Every structure is written in C-alpha cells, then in structure tokens.
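In this supplementary section we document a worked example of the pipeline. Step one takes a protein sequence of length 453 as its only input; no multiple sequence alignment statistics are reported here. Step two produces a three-dimensional model, which step three serialises into structure tokens for compact storage. The input and output of this example are shown verbatim.
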Amino acid sequence: MQQQARSSPPPGAAAAGPPGALHDWLDAVAVVVAGLAAMLVVAALGLWAAGADALPGGAFPFVLAATLALAVGGSVELDGGAGFFASVDAGITAMPLSVGLVGALAVAEVFLRQLRYRAVAGGRELLGRAARTAVVWLVALALLCAVARHTFTVTLGDGLAEQLGGALGLHPEVGFRAEPARTLGLGLLWLLVVLAATFAVSRRAPLPRSLVPFQQAVRPAAFAMLLVLLGYVLLGVAAAIGTAVVHGDARQVAAVALLALPNLVWIAFGVGLGGEWHGHLVGAIGLPVPKPLAAVLRTGEGGGGTVSLGTLAEQDGRAWWLLPLAAVLMLAAGVLAAHRSPRGVRPWRHAVRLAVAAAVTVLLVGVWTRVSADYGLSVLGVGLGEGGLGGLLSSVLGPAAGPSGPAAALAGGTLTLDPQLWTLVPLAAGWGLLAGALGALAAARLPRRGEVG
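The serialised model returned by step three reads:
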C-alpha cells in the first residue's frame, strides 16, 4: 500500500503541463539546462577568482565555454605564434572537477524530481528519458564547442621586447578551441555515467521490476562511497577556508576551490589508501598545483616523480594524516552501508559489496584526476626549453621573458599526472573488504529505525 501511494501523483498533477512527447522533451531540456547552468556559475566564479576576467580581447566568455567542455571530459587545443618566427603547440586535457561535480549533482537532482511519485518505472520509459536527455546534451555540447574558441594577442610589454617585435613585424597570437570529437564523445559518456550513478546510489530512483531485487545489493555500498567522496570535498572546503584565513590569499584559494578542489582531495583519498600517481611538472604551466605536490612532480629528472604517501610526507609531514583519514572514512562507509542494508545479510556479503563499490569509485577517481597539459613555443621550428634558445630569448627580451614577465606563458610548460590503476584499484578493493566486514560487525550493534529495545 505504501508503494502504491508513492506511485500515485497528487490529484490534478497528471493534467498539468504540456501533454505527450513535448512534455518528455521539455523534461530533457530541463535536465541539461540545470546541469549546464550550475557548471556555468561555478566555472565563472572560479575563472574570475583566477583572474581570467583580465584576459585581452574579451576572452572570458570563450574561456568559460572551454572550461565547461573540459569539465565533461573534453580537451582544449592551443595554437598560435608570431608569423614565420615562432609557433605555439599546446593542448590541455584536465577535468575541473569542482565544475563537473556541481553539474552532475544538478543533473541527478532534476532527473530524479521528474520521476517522483514513482516506486517502479518501465525499462523502456527510463531508456527513453535517458536517450532524449542525451540528444539534448549532445546539441548543447556542440553549441559549446562552437563558442569555446578564441584568439588574442599576447603583449610582450614595454622597452626592447616591444621594439624588437615592432621591427620584425611580430604580433604574437595565441588561440584555443575545444576539440569537438573528444568533447562530444566523452561528454556523452560523462552524462551516461552520471545517470547510471544516480540510479545506483539514490533510493528515490525508480527501477524496472526486474532490477528491484538487486537494489539492496548495490545502493547501500554505492551511497556510502558517494558520501566518502563528498566528505573529502567538505574537508577540502574547510581546509581552503583555513588557508585563506591564515595566508590571506583568498582569491587564489577560491580559484582552486571553485575549479579543482575535488581533483586534489580525491587524489589525497587515493594516496591515503596507498595508491600512487605518476607525473611530471616542468616550467610554469599556470595551473593550481599545491607546493608539496609540485615539489614531488619536479623531483624526477626527465622521467617525472611518483606521488605517494611517502613522497608527499617528505615534503610535508602532515601528509601522513591521509592514512588514518582514509581508514576512518572507509570504516564509516562500511558501517553506513551495512546499516542501510536489510538485517540478516552476512558480513562477508557486506565486505564484497563494499569492495566492489570502492574499486569502481577509485577507478573513476583515477580516470577523472588524469591531467595532461603541454604548452610549448618553438622558434624557427626549434623547440624552446630551459637553456639554449630559452636562455637566449631571456637574455634578449629581459624581464618580458622572465618568470613573472608578460611573455612567461610562452616559455613552455608541461604537467602530467596519471594514476597507477593497476595498484590503486586492488588496494581500494582490499580496503573495501576490510571496512565492509568491520562495518557489518559494528552495524549489527546499532538500533534500526522502527526497532524497539
């Protein structure tokens, strides 16, 4: 009787709004608009805090569109140069997860609200809703790619640099554009993952009758791991506020928090579990990288450095706290998953379910936190790096080509960060087994809703 009451909308609700297919397409539009609007607000605030509003040529809205493309898994190509003299070859593939996370939550919330008053839904209906949302989403991404392109002139500054540029007829230009195929393909995959995660996590999501028996095996553990990720984000917000208060650089801290906070805290989660990321950092790429992480990535000569609990602790001893933090939150996830499951489920089943959920969660975290950003300037076809032509250009242009000069961005830089998934995923599964078993034993002692005594 309770399910029947839930599946029946209030009187008059069925007759409200446009009928038939138009209503279904409007629902899809609402989901897409909500997701993009949420991402737009967060990305705009983050870029403003990062100083992107000062970019020349009115580039801010175009950079904003490119940031949204990156947030759903797309990539941005950069090119330009100064006539025959120099050329720029660059590309960025990095997901600003603060933007993507807010968009995913908005998409999930609006999609679920359209299915309220339902305990069960037909598979054909759910697939139809997902397909219509995907079509509207692809159209929106195509429009985003059309906007996410711009070219602006780089000012070398005053003095000798500007005189040389004028004498040679050089007007350095840098342009960027979202790569359409990758943005559309991975953007569609991003949406499908968000919708699948929504149905795997939320009790409000109606399922086809054939899948209802499996929900208790999936949803408690999936929901617990979602709370672990969100818990890390909340801890990151608290740490960001503390950093802004202590160090006073509130705008830079806000930029990192609004663009890449989950990137950092979810890597911290993986490192706390014992996982590793391998990467390399050369030059001034201009991306927000914390000092301990940057120091580790700069240590390797040529081959890069390994980000692990030990290497981070060498730079900052507080990194050791990542281990007990991960242990506590995983144990809490185990208790919560067991407590939300039906009584009578054996502890080993809880352990296996949380192990699978943890492995899938960390796999996604690893994929989402990959970074590949390369920015290189070649002069007359020859690469410009540290020393060589780089030193010659610095000696000629002086402050304009220095680390803080206006042409510093043209000096080149590389940032790569790749998870070692072959160790990270099994470690997460092992933590899930242990936390699931211990959590089941602890949850057995906790009272449940409706129980007396």
